[in-house]
Structure formats: structure tokens, C-alpha cells
Amino acid sequence: MKIKQLLILLLAASLLAVSCSKDDDDEINLPSGDFANGILVSNEGPFNNGSGTVTFISENLGSQEDAIYKKVNGEDLGNVVQSIGFNEDHAYIISNVSRTVTVVDRYTFEKITDISDGFENPRYFVAVNGKGYVTDWGDPNNDSDDYVAVIDLATNAVQSTISVNFGPERLLAKGNAIYVAHQGGYGQNDIISVINTDSNTVTATIQVGSVPNSLQLDDAGNLWVLSAGTPSYAGTESGGVLSMIDTSSNTVTAHLDFETSEHPNLLSVEGSILYYYLNGSVYEIDNSALTLPGHGILDGVNFYAMSVSKGKLYGTNAGDFASRGTLAVYDLNSKANIKTMTVGIVPGGVYFN
Amino acid sequence: MLTDNSLFLFLVLLLGPRLYAQTDSIIALDEVLLSDARLGQFSSGIKIETLNDSVVHNNSSTLTDLLQYNSSIYIKENGYGMVSSVSFRGTNAQQTAVIWNGININSQFNGQTDFNTISTPNYDNISVRSGGGSVQYGSGAVGGSVHLNNTLLFQNHFDNRLRLDYGSFNTAHVNYGTSFGNEKLALNLNFDYRKSDNDYKYLGTDRRNENGAFENFNLGLDVGYFLSESNLMKFYQNTFVGDRDFSGTLTAPSNDNYKDLTSRSLLEWSNFNDKKVARLKFAHLYERYRYYANKNTDNYDFGESNNFIINYDYKYRLGKITVNGILDFNTVKAKGSSINTSNRNVLAGIFLMSHRVTDKIKYDISIRKELNSDYNTPLVYAVNGKYDITDGYTVNLNTSKNFRVPTFNDLYWVGAGAAGNEEVVPEASYQVELGQNLGFKSYKFNITGYAIWSDDLIQWQPDVSGIWTPVNINRTRQYGLELQADVDKQFGSHQLLWKNSYTYTRSIDLKTDYDLIYVPEHKFNSNLAYEYKKWGGTYQFLYNGPVYITTDNTEILSGYTVSNIGLFRNLHVNRIDFHVAFNVNNLFNANYQSVAYRPMPNRNFQIGVTTKF
């Protein structure tokens, strides 16, 4: 008897779900779906053989679901899930070794399509004016075949490529411009390319520190670029540089230099405060500061990815890169660890849905 | 085959009394014929299984296939024919040494040997020596060692062997061997070629192994010449050329290609009499690889190394005690796309002693010390003995300390977010083993238990600034049990050979208490060969238990069983022997992976003809 009732309930619920998704087109910007209002963690997965996954964690950190793509779609996502980009209610999941961008509904994670033609070594995604832009290293042994692929988001196909300087990695959009940080693939590079999305051409390059690994916009519209500096094994070691770029003139208007042996990364921003990770500590710096902070706000951590949102800091630890990693959440006021959760193998990105 | 057997019987009858009389000079002679002499000497109580000529030649031509069905070693492959790595007694691939005619041939770059780059038909016998052997064989002989041996026959003969195989996935194999000799001179020449499209089905999907084609070529030459009754010169040469596309995985396509070339030469002069054997060896080992991340371009990563060895070995027998001193100088020069030209010089001194206490009790003690230009190598030792309690019942006991040196990658790698570390030191490992052998006329049983403790294991991990670098961080413990039961029976025109091996293995990371990945707790293999007059059949069975694939033991790759079946017929036409065989591999079409996300072949067929003339 009870089982029957349960069945009917389930049936009713699924009918409801179907009608909901049908109604989606008419609704305005109200996220619905199992994975709305929460955190998405992209897990690269084992490097050689296997699949990356996406973990969903509810906003109050109360519930967690692992490998949601596989759960919803019944198939593996792809090898080495590098990053996720978003546009409206779609998420674009980049599987680097699989050379695929998987398009899903960002709230239900139902697969829309795979884009697998046009990529060789895809890294990061950003959307501007109905186009998706994906950085791609090309052949990592070749310094001159790097590009940004342009995806028509209506047809989900690569429509053109923009040839760029060596080693394009993270990118962000401001207005109609895209700023691409050239970390330099397996080697080193030290520039930011500016792409005009009306003409899809590189209109400027800005020199920053060596190995620019992360970039953010603050609430005043300044572009901040964090460079790690040249690693010790690559000849002459140099320290990291935090550069501020005025996007109206595309020039570096201020920069703060680290010690030669200091190689920071994972720049995050909330409002006018910047956060970065260096040698086991997280540092915080105001966008008007004239010097680098002397001490960290969190010590003894080991972060592989980091994001800040609504007064909380989210850091992942990839452990030995061959087992499940963790996501630790900190309150930025009290600096207290609110919760630490086990996520997937090599958690490499934290996103807010 | 029958004629071979009768010939053998004839030889035994004729030579038997003389062989069993065993004059000392004949012992010395037997010994100098084999370059890997210590496989027989100073190995009391060591478990050594030898796969002889007929096993080597009636199996598939890769060392991977041969050993996973015929030994207790666990082997995993990145798809059929791709990179193959072994785990011997729960240790890793760098802790298994591959020994070519007495010389350690593990790669200078990654410290291991890819078992799919060894063409087995080139060798007359292949031995699997279980347990530590660093005193005698140097770095990496921790879990055990695999010995590839060529033998020389100093009697009047001229034999030729030609084998042709063709099978599924457009797989073709040609092997030609010729052996010529008289009392003074012996010569073997061997040629092997194998290629395959290797585009097998991924069972349960509509896909194929799209980038898995391979082609390899091996040339071997062995020459021996008696300068006088007590002076023998020998020369061995082997060259292998491999060209493989590397398969993708279920989640990632591939257009990788890998080309490798190895060339090994050994010149050995032995001077011997009934009391002593002195040997002087010069060897040169060359290895080169080119890895194309995209085979459609000309860009590749490469590594190239040259290794010169001078070895002087003097053995002397004083009654029941035999002593042996060895001085070995080894100089390696390596370079690569991520390794600046670097050098390593190693001088090793080895002392071995063997004592036959009584006819039933024998033991050996040996030590080795290396002086190395790069790092400090520990003094290692081995103590091993055996006791023949009754006729057919033997107890073995041994203990040893062994090591594995950092590779050129570990020390000198630069680039792609990774850097070698010149501070790493050799891994050290201790072990103890107890074995019992029971042998009757047609039955043989062995049970062996062992435990291995390893410290300072080298592991690559990101440093504080995210650069991957090796450190001596890990500690492990392996323990296990090996069981073997063999039947070799002949009745009338029937001949039955049945070999079974079961291993129980535990391999524990002592820092986390988790099991190491890719070590099956249970492995079982069985080989049945039955022959009646001119007909025969074979059945091979392999079970590899489930393995953990994440270091926190949260993910498991299922275990699998694979069966191969074969039928053969021996023919004798115009004084030429033919052996025609038909084999079905993966008879039950099992869908299995030995490495996660890398499917192995579906059911496939092969027909082959071997002729001897």
C-alpha cells in the first residue's frame, strides 16, 4: 500500500519535473533545477585514465551530490575537466584531454550537446554577445599555433579561431573586450592579449609579470593580473607580480612585486578586496594598498583552486592527485573553517550557481 | 616434436653417464656458457622459474603475454601492446629489474622496462627470479627480476626455425632463427618482426581501438668462440626498434605516437679451469625514445642515453666454499628534451660466498657496495640458503637488503611544471622469504611466503609553489603468499603439462594504511597443454582480482578472467618438421580492462606455422 503511494508520488513528481522544464522558456531568470542555488566544484579526475566529475554542494553546505553529470546523463564527462564557463542558463564544461566542450543546462545538468570539433588543448571559456571564447594551447610543443576558438552559442559550433600569442590560459570579459592571460603553456609567457569581440581580432597586448596565472576585475572596473614569476627550474628565477591595468587605456597603472622566491597564484576578488594564495597561506589586500601584506589571513592550507563569494572563501586541496580531494569553506570575517567536504579527484575549480 | 623427443632421449642416454659423472671442468664449462652465471650460482634457496625454449616459442611473442600467463607477476597494459608495467610481489615497475644476459637493462629515464618492447622469440630461455637481487643485479631488483638469456651450443649443428603467424586486427608476425655450431664456434642469429592494426572493438560500445597500431622489429646475434680449451670469447648483440601509436581511453581520443630504439652489445672473455673462472666484460647499452604528442606533426619529446660497462669477475673454488669477487664500472650519459646532458659514474664492488655445508645444506652470503658520483648508495647484502630435508622436499630461507636508484628523470628533469631533485637518495628495501618445494616424479609444488619493507620511496608531488618534484617520502610494506602446482606426466603417447600459480598479495602504504593502487590481492593463472601423438591442445586461464585505482581506495577496477584456447598439429614432411597452431584468444569475449578506461581486445583468432629445418 505504502509502496503504491510512493510510486504515485514519484510519478507525479516526475510529471511535474517534465512540465517544469517545458515551462522554462516562459519563465524569466528564475533558476530551477536540482543544482540551482549552490556551488559547483569541477574535479579534473585522474590524469591518465578516467573521467573528471562535477560535485554540487547546496549553498548552505548542507547537502552534496557527487558526479552529477554522470548521474543525470548516464555517461562520463571527459578526461581532465579543466574548467567550467557559463552563459545565461548554460554551462560549458571543458575536458582538456578529451578535447571537448560539453554544453549542459547549468541548473539541471542535462546535456545539450558536445562540441568536439575545433579543439586541440582547450583550457578556459568566457561568453560575450552570443559567442563563446575558448583558449587553446594547440600542440603544447609548438609555441606558435595557440589560439582562441570562437563558438557560435546558437549553433554550438566553433565558427572561427583567433591566432594569439603563446600559452593562452584564463580569460575574462569586460564589455565587448576579452582579456586573455598568457601563462605560457608548459613554458613561460608574460602578456595579456586584448581581443575586440566585434572584429574578433587582438587589438592590444599588455606586458605583465612572468607567468600570469589569474586575473580579476574589482568593483571599480580595474583589471588585476597576478603573475607567478619565473620558476626556479626555468633559468633565472623571478618573483611574482600583482599588476593593475586600466582597461580604458589598457596600460599597467600599478604593480606590486613579490620576493624572487615567491610565486603566488589563485587571485580572487570580492568588491575591492583581492585574495591570493602563496606558499600555504591566503593573503588579502585592498585594491588601494601600496604594499603587499606581511602576513596571511589563513595559514597552513594547501590550495589547488580558490574562489571567494558572499563573505566566504572556498579552497580546494588536491592531496596526492590520485585520490579524492577536499573543499574547505572559510568565513572571511572570522577566518574560521566552516566546513570541509570530500569532493572528487583533483578539484580544480569552484563556481557559484 | 616426437623426433625431437627421441633425439633428446638418445642424447640423455648417450651423454647421461658422462653428465652425471660431473667432472669439475664440465661444471666450469656449463657455467661460462651462460653469461648470467649467478642465476645458477650463489642462488641457493632463491625461487627461480625458467621458461624454456618451447614455452617461449609456443607463446605470443611479447614478454607481457608470456609472463602474465606463465608467472606470478602481475602486469597491466595501457591497452593491448601499449606501455606495459609490472608489479612483482606488490612492488612497482621500477622495483623489477630486467636482466639481459646478466646485465640490468632498465631505462635510465624511468627506471623500468616496458615489457612490450621485449621480443621473446629472440631468447632461448627466460627466467623469473623472485625476491631481492640487488647485490648481484643492482638497482631495481627488489620485487624480483626477469632474466633474458641466450645460450650457445658448441656441437656440430645447423638448425633453422621459421615461424609465421597471422591473426585478427591484421596482426602479422615473422620470426626466423638460425643456429650454427661446431666444437669451437657457436652462432645464433634471430630476426623478429611483428605488426598489428590492433583496432579491436571496445566491447559494449560502438567504438574501436582507433590509435593502437604497432610495429616492431628485433635483431639478435650471439657468437661464441673457444680461443683455447680454457678461453672463451662471446659476443651478444640485440637491437629493438618499436613504433607504436598510443591508444586513447574511453574518455579521451589520442593521436600520440612513440618510437623507441634500444641496442645492447656485450663482449665477454672467460678464462677458466677446474678451480676458477675469470671473466672480463665490456657492454654498451643504448636507448632512445621519441614521443609525438601529435603524430601528424614533427614535434616530439625525446630521451637518449649511452651506458658503458666494464666488469671483471673472478670466482674461485676452495673445496666446499666458493668465493667470487666482482668489480663493475658503469658510466651513463643521458640527455633529452627535458634533461640537459648529464653523467653518472658508478663503481660497484661485490663479494659473494657460497658454502656447501653438506650435500643437503647450502647457503650463500653476499654484499655489494657502490660508489656513485650522484648520491650515496647503501651497502646491500643477501643471505640465502636451502636445506634438502628429504629427497624431493626442500626448504628455502633468505633475507636481503636491496635498493633502487633515482632515475635521470628523478634527478635532472626540467620543464612542463616539473623539476627533478638532485637531493633524492636511493630507495632502500628489506625482505625476508620462506619457501618450501615438494617434488615427485610428475608433480611439483611450491609454497612461498615473503614480506618486504621499503623506505625512502621516491614519489613525485607538487612543492609549495605547485612544481612537481620527486621526494623520498613514502614507506610501504608488501607481504604475500605464492602457491604453485605443476603436473608433467607422460603415459603412452599422451603427454600432459599443467602449471598453476596462485598469488595472494598485499601492498600497504604505511603512511596512510591504504592499499597501493593496481596490486590485485588475488591472481591465478593456469596453463594446460595436452599432446597425443601428433595432435595437441592448450588452454590458458588468467584471473586478476579487483584492484584499487585511487590511493584512498575509494575506486575499484573490477577483476577479470581471460581464457585462451589453442589446437596444434605436428607434421613431418620431407624431413622438415611443421607445427601448425590455431589459437582463440579471449575465448569468452570478456570485456575487461587491465588499466581503467583502457579496454582490452575482444575475442580474436590467430593461425601460425612453425617449421624447423
Automatic annotation (TrEMBL), chain A:
Transmembrane segments: none annotated. It holds the Pfam family DUF5074. Residues 1-17 form the signal peptide. InterPro entries: DUF5074, Host-pathogen_enzymatic-act, N2O_reductase_N, WD40/YVTN_repeat-like_dom_sf. Keywords: Signal. Gene3D superfamilies: YVTN repeat-like/Quinoprotein amine dehydrogenase. It comes from the Bacteria. This is YncE family protein.
From TrEMBL, chain B:
Its main location: membrane. SUPFAM superfamilies: Porins (SSF56935). Residues 58-144 form the TonB-dependent receptor plug domain. It is found in: Cell outer membrane. The keyword Transport applies. The keyword Amino-acid biosynthesis does not apply. It comes from the Bacteria. Keywords: Cell outer membrane, Membrane, Receptor, Signal, TonB box, Transmembrane, Transmembrane beta strand, Transport. InterPro entries: Beta-barrel_TonB (IPR000531), Beta-barrel_TonB_sf (IPR036942), Plug_dom (IPR012910), Plug_dom_sf (IPR037066), TonB-dep_rcpt-like (IPR039426). One of its GO terms (cellular component) is cell outer membrane. Residues 162-587 form the TonB-dependent receptor-like beta-barrel domain. GO terms for biological process: siderophore transmembrane transport. It holds the Pfam family TonB_dep_Rec_b-barrel. Transmembrane segments: none annotated. It is a multi-pass membrane protein. GO terms for molecular function: siderophore uptake transmembrane transporter activity. Belongs to the TonB-dependent receptor family. This is TonB-dependent receptor. It comes from Cerina litoralis.
